[in-house]
Fold:
Amino acid sequence: MPITVTAPRDVLTSAGEREILPRLTDALIEVSGLTGNTFFGPMIGGTVHVLSPAYIYAGGVNSPLVMVELKLPNIGLPTVADRAAFIAAATDIVDASTIVGHNRVHTWVNILNAPDGGWGVGGIAYTGDDLISAVTAAA
Structure:
């Protein structure tokens, strides 16, 4: 389940650049109710992209946006409440990872779902049922 963070240079603190992905990973595990699951945790990975502020836009003009994008199978975070909980947690994590003065309105969190069988690791395409079986077996 890839998490991608994109931020303008000098908006994330140096500690924030290092800590944001582990903290987002923990938030996803917690919101999913899968703390300690030996299959689920290692399936979460991600990248932090720190770009020149000249390359980040909102409304067609440069903006200090920090964007968090989570891609997961369509069974992940299945309810509106689950998705809202992750979005709130991710926004709080961005707040804790950015410089003083970063405005929450400049934090965008998007959750994208892969269709059944459209998510895979190591060359294996998992259906929702496959993932549920693997998570249950690792509980």
